[in-house]
Amino acid sequence: MIVQRRAVSAVLAAAALLLTAGCSSDGGEPSGADGGTSASRTAAQSSPPGSATEETPPAKGSVEVVRTVATGLRSPWGLAPLPGGGLLVSSRDEATITRVDEETGEKTELGEVPGVSPSGEGGLLGIALSPDYASDRMVYAYFTSASDNRIVRMRYDEKEPPGEQLGEPDTVLRGIPKGEIHNGGRIAFGPDRMLYAGTGESGDTGLSQDEESLGGKVLRMTPDGEPAPGNPFPDSVVYSYGHRNVQGLAWDDEQRLFASEFGQQTWDELNAIKPGDNYGWPEAEGKGGGSGFHDPLAQWSTDEASPSGAAFAEGSVWMAGLRGERLWRIPLKGTEAAADPQAFLQGEYGRLRTVVPADGDRLWLVTSNTDGRGDAKEDDDRILELRVT
Length: 389
What we know:
Layout: H1 10-20, E1 63-70, E2 76-81, E3 87-91, E4 96-100, E5 107-112, E6 124-129, H2 133-136, E7 138-144, E8 149-155, E9 170-176, E10 186-189, E11 195-198, E12 217-221, E13 238-241, E14 246-251, E15 257-261, E16 267-272, E17 298-301, E18 307-313, E19 316-321, E20 327-333, E21 336-337, E22 342-344, E23 352-357, E24 362-367, E25 383-388
Antiparallel strand pairs: 1-25, 2-3, 3-4, 4-5, 6-7, 7-8, 8-9, 10-11, 11-12, 12-13, 14-15, 15-16, 16-17, 18-19, 19-20, 20-21, 20-22, 23-24, 24-25
């Protein structure tokens, strides 16, 4: 694992320390906030001036909740649909992976991932299936250890008894900075069969511009954790930089990558990712960052979004909001927004963590109300099946 050698300047590092104060967590709350929900499930919120919802009339779309697939999940974070049926779900705080039967809702625990150190926003986060899952049965996981964030892979053997179905973890990538906040955590295999990871700057804002650090980046690597062919920096897994906390990755029908990103106090972002580009943090947040920085294609106030998961379906990126407690639709035209974003399910299911494509016009949506920041109801957390247009 080698990244391009260009250290952040002392001036930038000093600015980073100043910006750390008052930054928001993955729920959109100030750092150190624990337990409180930021918005009622039924309270409507107006869009502030300059938000993404006031520029042009929105394109028409709709979301229908087809059914509740499963309930009673504890601190769910990542979701990976299995070929042939079944959904794997990670628990951030319990460090377990559970298989959910999408027809009956029955839950079977595969096992606990060893080495996970849950604390703050860290723990067992994103999961993904190997592109060769049919033959190797490998499940990849991103998690916070005692010393760093890392990516491992484990063989899933459903012939073993429940609770003992995960093999020993093989470390794919280590050394991603960890913190009480901003651990990133989303992983996904792209159309190119390479493994992508969204990371955070762990509260140390200078890391985002430091290309020697894996923090505050979108990473791209082979399934074995080596720098992927064609990466913008020689011998480096860094694909883009200048990010604050990336927790959503999605590809459109043309194999273009989009990433959702938590802002600090002003703007959350959806970015079109281009290899080697600088997305501005901590010197820029939202649009208009200036020369040398890649502007987001859409932005939101942090109380409207605090975005985690992202998925592409029916011509749009769909983005799950934590503090915003809503599902955003961003219709696309190339790498630009075709119209203003639309919000759905506002306040109906609480905090929304993960959204994953299903078949056709369907999405899987995971709530996040039992992680210490939400207003948990009796059946939380849950997986929903949605139909979208």
